[in-house]
Amino acid sequence: MTYCVGIRVQQGLVFAADTRTSAAFDDVRIHSKMHVFEFPDRVLVLLSSGNLATTQTVLARLACDAENEASGLRSAKHLFEVAEHIGQTLVAAQQLVANNNSPNPVNVEATLVLGGQIRGEQPALYLIYPLGNWISASPETPYVQIGESKYGKPILDRIVRSATTLEDAARCAVVSLDSTARSNLSVGLPFDLAIVRTGELKIAQTLRLEADTPLYVEIRDTWSRKLEHAVHSLPRFAWETDAAKIKSA
Amino acid sequence: MTYCVGIRVQQGLVFAADTRTSAAFDDVRIHSKMHVFEFPDRVLVLLSSGNLATTQTVLARLACDAENEASGLRSAKHLFEVAEHIGQTLVAAQQLVANNNSPNPVNVEATLVLGGQIRGEQPALYLIYPLGNWISASPETPYVQIGESKYGKPILDRIVRSATTLEDAARCAVVSLDSTARSNLSVGLPFDLAIVRTGELKIAQTLRLEADTPLYVEIRDTWSRKLEHAVHSLPRFAWETDAAKIKSA
């Protein structure tokens, strides 16, 4: 499994990904799932989940494309066209092995997130399915997730809006990853974080959070403390206030 | 789908359940999934998920048992024996229809939560599987969930400990249900809440929360506001403090 999330707010884009890949409980490794392409007129960030052989094939091919100015990656005028190009690359990588019948069927599908900005356009964010088709983040749902998406979704739903600051969105993404890694063993540290500011056409910040990175430790501890405080400050039940009235009477 | 959660803290037990049952998107109804049995020497609360015909069969049989002092429900000395009795009732209900082959296979399994207290014992909390076997909540994992459990799990993991007050645990349960209902259409209002205080051998409080119940509205709004505040109060990234230093210099 994997958990990656991309967020699009007015100020720009946030990308966050875990790094654990697992073929089985006893076959666990660390691979980055965040892949950055920067060119003078565009910045592209890809997050990957699913079959590792497939995503590495896609990445290897896209890295070749990146050297060719005429490739879909570099020549497309619109980000959705880049998403389609990557979608086709993904489908081709899956089809390469689709007919290699094995007695132990393996799911070779992968799912990707593509975000970025091309000069002349607003930043955009896409989820690319194994079929090669895509959906875009929207103002109402300003994020896309791949992999183990459920544990980390409520915090995104409650907090992230288009007007949320880039840094608050990034803090949300870290909490969302942390919640997921606590509940699904196949999602694990270190976490990769990247930020693209609207109009800059480059990565503004990247960060790798390890278990002992002070910022990560502090975010995790503060979050637990604040959440406890938040629960405790929720409205009282009627019988609590009644009991308090009786006591104070 | 369904979402129910039971929590066991030192002060007692919390039970919370949604009420939506759905055979399909266009076949949605409201049924209580919380079932209470009170006797002078014991209190039992059952939460149900899965096939509604199965859970109603189980409940109908347990209601008969409740009239008979010698039944497993009333005569068992230990709560785990009640769990086993209910587990056997569940298996029997499933087996009733197991061989009625249909061209459209239907999953007739159900999963239950049993919590309560029998005089002379501490309160206890069990998850009863379709096989009729069970697991117990533990001091390290003081809750059990059935149905759509993922969205509402992080808040429980971060907050609920054995020392948490009964009311804070109940507030957590409401937030956990609310998070789930936001993300899974098959989980829906109204929510049922019940509380058992250690040693009382009866239901201390029950509550039904509708969409317009002032307490529920207030909990939901306060939670979103507090969470936003919590995110905003998380540690700054290095580049934010650097930028602040430059500004103030």
TrEMBL record, chains A, B:
Any one GO BP annotation for this protein: proteolysis involved in protein catabolic process
A single Gene Ontology CC term: proteasome core complex
Cited InterPro entries: Ntn_hydrolases_N, Proteasome_sua/b, UCP009120_prtse
Any Pfam family the entry gives: Proteasome
Keywords: Proteasome
Descriptive protein name: 20S proteasome subunit A/B
